[in-house]
């Protein structure tokens, strides 16, 4: 699986990697899908559809907001990004589709929990509990995403780890 930072998008080979990625996930490669995926993956952020639209319009002025919404839903449906729903805000999209945790601040900003801590946190969840959830709800859990809510803003302390803001 290719994640943010693993494709050099500014190079022609990078766009070809995106085309291959789309095809591998059962999507027809179109310029619109490529542009939306590239805008999202290179942002280093969890973007809303409006933010993706603004980014894409810098190079493709004619793309409509409806096309961006439809494309993001197609990418999410194919497993190329995750749709994140936050309280009181617009859906945000993340191209890091690995199991990981987020911290959401009161103002809706999203931070990725550093990988080592996210892994420890997610691995601490008892697999028996997950199996019981599957059994009781009658469904298969395909992944795990954990959202932590912060009441305070992040400090400027250098000891806070490598969490990146994704607003």
Structure described in brief:
The chain has 167 residues and is of the alpha+beta class.
List the SSEs and their pairings.
Layout: H1 12-24, H2 31-42, H3 49-57, H4 65-77, E1 82-84, E2 92-94, E3 100-105, E4 110-112, H5 115-123, H6 127-137, E5 145-150
Parallel strand pairs: 3-5
Antiparallel strand pairs: 1-2, 3-4
Helix pairs in contact: 1-2, 2-3, 2-4, 3-4
Description:
The protein is of the alpha+beta class and 167 residues long. It folds into two domains: 73 residues, Arc Repressor Mutant, subunit A; 63 residues, 2-Layer Sandwich (Dna Ligase, domain 1). It is built from six helices and five strands; from the N terminus they run ααααββββααβ. It has a three-stranded mixed β-sheet with strand order 4-3-5, covered by helices on one side. A hairpin with a 7-residue loop joins strand 1 and strand 2. Helix 2 packs across helix 3. The longest helix has 13 residues. It starts with 11 loop residues before the first helix and ends in a 17-residue tail after the last strand. The relative contact order is 0.13.
């Amino acid at each position: 699986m290719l994640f943010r930072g693993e494709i050099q998008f500014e190079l022609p080979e990078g766009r070809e990697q995106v085309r291959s990625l789309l095809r591998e996930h059962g999507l027809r490669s179109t310029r619109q899908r490529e542009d939306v995926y590239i805008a999202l993956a290179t942002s280093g952020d969890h973007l809303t559809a409006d933010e993706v639209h603004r980014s894409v319009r810098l190079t493709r002025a004619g793309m409509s907001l409806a096309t961006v919404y439809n494309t993001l839903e197609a990418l999410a449906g194919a497993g190329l990004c995750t749709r994140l729903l936050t309280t009181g805000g617009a859906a945000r999209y993340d191209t890091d589709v690995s199991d990981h945790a987020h911290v959401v601040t009161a103002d809706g900003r999203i931070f990725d929990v550093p990988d080592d801590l996210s892994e420890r946190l997610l691995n601490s969840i008892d697999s028996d509990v997950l199996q019981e959830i599957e059994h009781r709800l009658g469904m298969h859990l395909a992944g795990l995403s954990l959202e932590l809510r912060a009441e305070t803003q992040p400090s400027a302390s250098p000891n806070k780890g490598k969490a990146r803001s994704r607003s």
